[in-house]
Amino acid sequence: MTKRSPFRYFKTSPEIIRLAVMLYVRFPLSLRSVEDLLHERGIDFSHETVRFWWNRFGPMLLPRSGETG
């Protein structure tokens, strides 16, 4: 049995979703700041989309506490 991609129903590439989530997590930025940074790079999504991605993919993309790596 193959493991299905959690991004399979999204039209946006997984790389863009990962970038948006990691910008929000890694740096002390607001959702609107992440929206502005993506817009400067030619990627247009609302801050609400970034919030949705964070809620859905944030826990999956971030290492759990106690794990090293």
Question: How would you describe what is shown here?
Answer:
By secondary structure, this protein is mainly alpha-helical. It has helices at about 15-25, 30-40, 45-60. It has a domain at about 15-60. The longest helix has 15 residues, at about 45-60. It is globular and about 40 Å long. The mean pLDDT is about 90.
**Topology as a string of helices (H) and strands (E):** HHH
List low-pLDDT spans.
none
Distance between the termini: 27 Å
β-sheet strand percentage = under 5%
Q: How many runs of DSSP E, i.e. beta strands?
A: 0
User: Radius of gyration from the CA trace?
Assistant: 13 Å
Give the structural class.
mainly alpha
Largest sheet: none
Secondary structure: helix percent: 55-70%
Principal-axis shape equals globular
Query: Quaternary arrangement of the chains shown?
Result: single chain
The residue-averaged pLDDT reads: 88
Number of helices: 3
